[in-house]
Amino acid sequence: MAGAGDRAPPPPAPVGGRDEPERWAPVGASGRGRLTASLQGPRRQSPQPPSWFPAGIIGEGKMIIFCPGGFFGMMPKTGCVVSGIYMIIMTNMYIIFETGHLDRAKRLLPITEDSIIYYYYTALLLACLTYPVCILLIYSVWNRNVRGMFTYVVWIIFYDLANFTLLILTFLARRYAHPFYIHPLEWFGLALRLPVDCFWLSYIIIYALMIFESRSKGRMSMKESVCKP
């Protein structure tokens, strides 16, 4: 007869060949115990996003932003301010050169071919409208206004496409307006400005998405939006 301090022998292994985790649980003050087997298997972890990309677009219930730390050591907020200042300087240079091209077109073009002159006036008007948009960008960055930032992004895309279209129309119209020609500096300036504008727009889009994500989670600090290494 077993003593009071003895334990009951363990039951046979469960049918199915799967090893279940077991533990002894003491019962009462007599020292006897009973064997309890856990019927739950190992916990399954939720699938994680692939690790070969530094960031994606959509994660599990949250937005994953590309390059939240910026580029070349420049944070997105700083890049947004520099982007507005850069666009103001580029607009100044563009107006100066376009005014010179307009004067040259007035001297070389006959009176009947005035469509090219209207193209240059349109380009100058769009350049003047860019100034308040740049001021809106700097104001929006300071006040964390996402709509103002995306307004600037839409305007710059429209502005570059409009300038490209005007230059193509001028190139097509100059065939009937000898001896007028398009200066090579116009092609060079447009080809150089397009990729640079895309580079600075990336800062604005990243910073706007960071603000949108922080507001959706109720966070006020932008430090929590930066991905940890």
Topology:
Elements: E1 22-26, E2 33-37, H1 76-108, H2 115-143, H3 146-173, H4 184-216
Antiparallel strand pairs: 1-2
Helix pairs in contact: 1-2, 1-4, 2-3, 3-4
Distinctive features:
two-stranded antiparallel sheet, mainly alpha, 4 helices, 229 residues
Task: Summarize the structure in words.
The chain is mainly alpha-helical. The chain has a domain at 76-224: Four Helix Bundle (Hemerythrin (Met), subunit A) (Up-down Bundle). The chain has helices at 76-108, 115-143, 146-173, 184-216; strands at 22-26, 33-37. A two-stranded antiparallel sheet has the order 1-2. Helix 2 (115-143) packs antiparallel against helix 3 (146-173). It starts with 21 loop residues before the first strand and ends in a 13-residue tail after the last helix. Residues 17-41 and 47-64 have low confidence and may be disordered.
Q: Can you describe this structure in just a few lines?
A:
This protein has 229 residues and is mainly alpha-helical. It is built from four helices and two strands, in the order ββαααα.
Structural class: mainly alpha
CATH class identity of one domain:
Mainly Alpha
Between the first and last Cα atoms, what is the distance in angstroms?
A: 64 Å
List SSEs in N-to-C order.
EEHHHH
Number of helices: 4
Mean pLDDT: 73
Strand content: under 5%
Rg of Cα set: 34 Å
pLDDT < 50 stretches: 17-41, 47-64
- Estimate the helix proportion, in percent: 40-55%
Shape: elongated
Structure summary, number of beta strands: 2
CATH topology of one domain: Four Helix Bundle (Hemerythrin (Met), subunit A)
Any idea what the CATH architecture of one domain is? Up-down Bundle
| Major sheet strand order | 1-2
